UniProtKB/TrEMBL annotation:
Organism: Paenibacillus albidus
GO process annotations (BP): cell redox homeostasis
Signal peptide location: none
The name this protein goes by in its record: Thioredoxin
Gene Ontology MF terms in the entry: protein-disulfide reductase activity
């Protein structure tokens, strides 16, 4: 499954999926966001269908960004069965993403 782009209009539906959804808030002008993008893409390729990855451009989607109080980017939120479980700003390593998205039984 490829990384999906969310908008204010469809964000809620995108995160309501069963399982784990990783949401990355970013902007094209953000240097750290550009550094994080290849890590996120590699994580998504390796995770396959077990994790959904969604990106939200904060400039184009201010309602969603405000709803989750995004004050700096990149910011990553982890949702499990539509419920927010974790939030962190900055660049995460692939290992961090794998650990954060592991099923509760694996932790």
């Amino acid at each position: 499954m490829a990384i999906q782009q969310a908008a204010d209009s469809n964000f809620k539906e995108m995160i309501q999926a069963e399982g784990v959804t990783v949401v990355n808030f970013w902007a094209p002008w953000c240097g750290p966001c550009r550094m994080f993008a290849p890590i996120l893409e590699e994580f998504e390729r390796e995770a396959g269908d077990s994790v959904r990855v969604v990106k939200v451009n904060i400039d184009e989607n201010p309602v969603t960004s405000a709803q989750f109080q995004i004050m700096s980017i990149p910011t990553t939120l982890i949702f499990r069965n539509g419920q927010p479980q974790y939030k962190e700003s900055g660049i995460l390593s692939k290992g961090n993403l794998q650990q954060l998205t592991a099923s509760p039984e694996q932790l």
